Amino acid sequence: MIFLSKKVPEVAARRLPRYYRYLGDLLQNGVTRISSAALSEKMKVTASQIRQDLNLFGGFGQRGYGYDVAELHKSIGEILGLNNHYTIVIIGGGNVGKAIANYAGFKKRGFDIIAVFDCNREIIGKDINGVSIYDIADLESFCEKNHPAIAAVAVPKSAALSLVGVMDRCGFKGIWNFSHAEIECSAPVESVHMSDSLMTLSYRIDNMDD
Amino acid sequence: MIFLSKKVPEVAARRLPRYYRYLGDLLQNGVTRISSAALSEKMKVTASQIRQDLNLFGGFGQRGYGYDVAELHKSIGEILGLNNHYTIVIIGGGNVGKAIANYAGFKKRGFDIIAVFDCNREIIGKDINGVSIYDIADLESFCEKNHPAIAAVAVPKSAALSLVGVMDRCGFKGIWNFSHAEIECSAPVESVHMSDSLMTLSYRIDNMDD
């Protein structure tokens, strides 16, 4: 049972997926408990930062014992809403759309990809990893019937911008944006800007000696 | 000419790619100058944050005039090291590798993709968007001759982990990691963890009313 006593700052919330991944790795390796010091060493985050973050969610650690890995993993999963089993439609059946549809890890984390939409007649009617590809023109009617929670946007920038109105009408709870467009929607938008991370890497290479 | 008078905090440095993208959009739309207030409105960052960030890099704004878009875009590009024309090899010719090789925007930003490596005999010898696919066994000898700056890692987690030793010997200046592995290397590593952003989106959907 989790009691959220305080409002969680966004920066702390953004660290949760990484905790979740690390704890999942530990579980897979048969680790049942871990101290904040050991978790700190593994994650390259200070132990006090870890304690502070996890305290925000009710404080799962016990002095002298550390954290129960399975319990903490489960609790963070709940906080992240992974129990909601959100459905996803992918908009765009190109390389990025295919990469998303083919990654088995999302299903494991409670996300179910139920359809891909594209405008390319050559792929409509086919499937990616067992998920059917539909005509993008049918997106709105599909959503009226099936109420998918999340749209993964994997089309070029101009196509993404032209679809904003339709996506708003589809009533998605969240937009997972891989396009190079800044999408403004009534739902929360999380963007994966590949080129931003490449530019950050470039900056870090250039400033290695700072 | 840019004079870096102060050490730039990492959080500020991480905002630079976004400034660079926005300013590029403005340039394309024929905007020649912009106030910090207008940039703030567009980027959903406070104007004082923008002034503070840009002051770190020498302060390009002029009171009552605002920022010269072309000059600021160029300067931020220099700060990001985009003038270095880094070469990239892609490790993994699957969907993610293809998506990277096919995105024209990287070339425009000074990154040159020179080779793809894979272990799949069926694709070795072919090409993606004009870039040849080589046998992963030849990665080290290729790097000895061509000294690529960056490795884009687009293989499954286990493959990525098994390649860490080879990658270290290849002398990359930076690792751009798309795998679900945490890669530890002597060079800086920038990771694009797709599933982390999906979990963050899930959290935000779940906490919309907070």
Written description of the protein model:
The structure is a homodimer of 210-residue chains. With 210 residues, chain A is α/β, with parallel strands linked by helices. The first copy, chain A, is built from ten helices and nine strands. The first copy, chain A, has helices at 10-28, 36-43, 47-55, 69-79, 95-102, 105-108, 139-146, 157-162, 164-170, 194-206, and strands at residues 33-34, 67-68, 87-91, 112-118, 127-128, 131-135, 150-153, 174-177, 189-191. A seven-stranded mixed β-sheet of chain A has the order 5-6-4-3-7-8-9. The N and C termini of chain A lie far apart (45 Å). At the A-B interface, helix 1, helix 5, strand 8 and helix 10 of A face helix 1, helix 5, strand 8 and helix 10 of B.
Topology (SSEs and partners):
The structure is a homodimer of 210-residue chains.
Chain A: H1 10-28, E1 33-34, H2 36-43, H3 47-55, E2 67-68, H4 69-79, E3 87-91, H5 95-102, H6 105-108, E4 112-118, E5 127-128, E6 131-135, H7 139-146, E7 150-153, H8 157-162, H9 164-170, E8 174-177, E9 189-191, H10 194-206
Q: Tell me the series of helices and strands of chain A, N- to C-terminal.
A: HEHHEHEHHEEEHEHHEEH
- Binned strand content of chain A: 15-25%
**Rg of chain A (C-alpha, Å):** 20 Å
Structural class by sheet pairing and helices of chain A? alpha/beta
Low-confidence stretches of chain A: none
| Mass-distribution shape of chain A | elongated
Largest sheet of chain A: 7 strands, mixed
Number of strands of chain A: 9
Order of the strands making up the biggest sheet of chain A: 5-6-4-3-7-8-9
* Discrete helix count of chain A: 10
- What is the percent of helical residues of chain A? 40-55%
**pLDDT averaged residue by residue of chain A:** 89
Between the first and last Cα atoms of chain A, what is the distance in angstroms?
A: 45 Å
The greatest interface between two protein chains, and residues involved on each side, is: A-B, 58 and 58 residues
